[in-house]
Amino acid sequence: MIGRLRGVLVAKAPPWLMIEVNGGVGYELEAPMSTIYDLPELGREVTLFTHYAQKEDSVSLYGFLRESERRLFRDVQKVTGIGAKIALAILSGVSVDEFARLVQAGDVTALTRIPGIGKKTAERMVLELRDKAADLGGAGATLTTIPDDPQSEAVIALQQLGYKPAEALRMAQKAAAAGDDAAMIIRKALQSALR
């Protein structure tokens, strides 16, 4: 239903968020800790990729800062016995790239260290996702939408260069100045990283 949601962050009580959009309409979303940690402060604008889930007796909306997280959330739920709760636990316990590496390596022991993941579930994930593991990682992720501000564009580019999402965001925020385009922010962030 909703693929992307932009609004003002008005409440944050992990794992729940409240985003107010135009006209005072508020959406309550559940998000993994990887998203919660990287959110701006309350009262600031945020754009989230969303996943809408409808069951017989409930409707749920999930929010993610990165498309790669939303894709992993959807992919792991295709594994037998995994639902939204475990998918959120995975994203809260490990990065998308690290999860892809663990699945590709068949590291069941490391996967069981994620809260809520037992040995049988870890084995099923390795078995059912190993062929897709290369596509799970954030570095190879293809965005379904183009960021509409230079800083977000720079963050994505820095992630594609191998920087972790939180580190890429921090680098872009430090480097960005009023009027800078994405290329300038990236250049300044990389120069700063070399010092």
From TrEMBL:
Q: Where in the cell does this protein reside?
A: Cytoplasm
Which GO molecular function entries does the Swiss-Prot or TrEMBL record give?
ATP binding; four-way junction DNA binding; four-way junction helicase activity
Q: Which InterPro entries does the UniProt entry name for this protein? A: DNA_helicase_Holl-junc_RuvA_I, Hlx-hairpin-Hlx_DNA-bd_motif, NA-bd_OB-fold, RuvA, RuvA_2-like, RuvA_C, RuvA_C_sf
Quote the SMART domains the UniProt record gives: HhH1 (SM00278)
Q: What is one term from the GO cellular component aspect held by the record?
A: cytoplasm
Region Domain III: which residues? 152-195
Could you say which protein family the record assigns here? Belongs to the RuvA family.
The protein's name in its UniProt record: Holliday junction branch migration complex subunit RuvA
> Which organism was this protein described from?
Pseudoxanthomonas composti
- Classification lineage: Bacteria, Pseudomonadati, Pseudomonadota, Gammaproteobacteria, Lysobacterales
